[in-house]
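Q: I'm writing up a methods section and want to include an example of the input and output format. Could you take the sequence below and give the corresponding predicted structure tokens, formatted cleanly so I can copy it straight into the document?
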Amino acid sequence: MNRAAVKLITLLLLLWSWSVALAREHAPMLPQVYAEGDAITGWWMSEKLDGVRGYWDGRLLWSKQGKLMQPHPDFVAGLPDFALEGELWGGRGSFELCASVVQQPLSEQWLQLQFAIFDLPAMPGPFSERIEQARRWFKDHPSPHAFVIEQIPVKDQSQLQAELQRVEAAGGEGLIVRNPQSLYAAGRSADLLKVKSFADAEAIVVEHLPGQGENQGRLGALLVERPDGLRFKLGTGFSAAERLEPPPLGSSVSYKYYGLYPSGIPRFPAFLRIRQDQGL
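A: Here is the clean output for your methods example:
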């Protein structure tokens, strides 16, 4: 190997190690849960896209947990040399597809997805300025695989609820509302709220409970365990195929619910999906 090749490889390794260190240092800004009556008039709302979070450091694409992703080269070819944060998304109702694709190195399946940009984490200044810079850049450098998520000013609570109903009726997950004057800050932020008509969480499958009646010979319910050790049953939300081949023991599943009983057990819990993106 000649000296020029050695220098090139050394440089590439340095750039890669620098990017790894940068990604590991990046701690994402995360939403809190909206409560009715929160003062959000004048904030901006957008649809909460149900995908896999991605962080572009200007050279490489990383997961929320700091794992290096390997997208198809065409997927990232049009991205800028500055940091972006967004959702790797394949459209409403396509979470399972998205979670599968992002774990396929260099696959052309990546080209079914888009990078939906919602922030520029390394840029100083308020969110309104950060997202405007993203809009200007992608207007001048359009990409078939990336777009900036539309932000809508919130006039009042009734407008917020009307938009939530519209999004959910169309198959969307919910809304995100942001304080346009907020700075980017790691961790859960009161300036960033998720709005849904239901809450959701994760639990571990510990037992398959047999069905009765029309579900005789199939899954009746899952016995699941929350991180705090509380166990309860998930008996609704399953397709016929999922009752025949239920989530395996030890897998992590998402469920939705509508508040908690005094015992702490979720009210009206329903299965949503297996969490195929665990660890991303």
